[in-house]
Amino acid sequence: MDWQELTDLTQGQPFIVERVRLAGSGVAIEGQFEPPQLAQLGVDDQVFVAAFVRAHGSIKEMERLFGVSYPTIKARLNRISENLSFAVELAEPAPEPEPPGADVVDRLQRGEITVQEALDALKGSR
Known about the structure:
single chain, mainly alpha, two-stranded antiparallel ribbon, 2 strands, 9% strand
């Protein structure tokens, strides 16, 4: 069964996957798994998202493919994006950059280098 058949069967209702079998090895995993958010979209929206990716995000190309106007494409993208919160949830903030010489200070605190070696290393990093 492919995602389109599953989407047709569920008619947009939420569903839980309870068993996953790896095709190559036959190993099965049981539990409760939510399908990916893209798989939870209706078939038409899945096709739209796939077309958008294939068009490299070009709204002009989407206008041509679907024969609709810019505002129509934007409205549909906005509606679909409201159902795709995972992109924000998965995005991790960029780590704060360490100040110059922080690794030298860490090594000094662990006793891996002497004070003089730390001073020399910090002078060399300028």
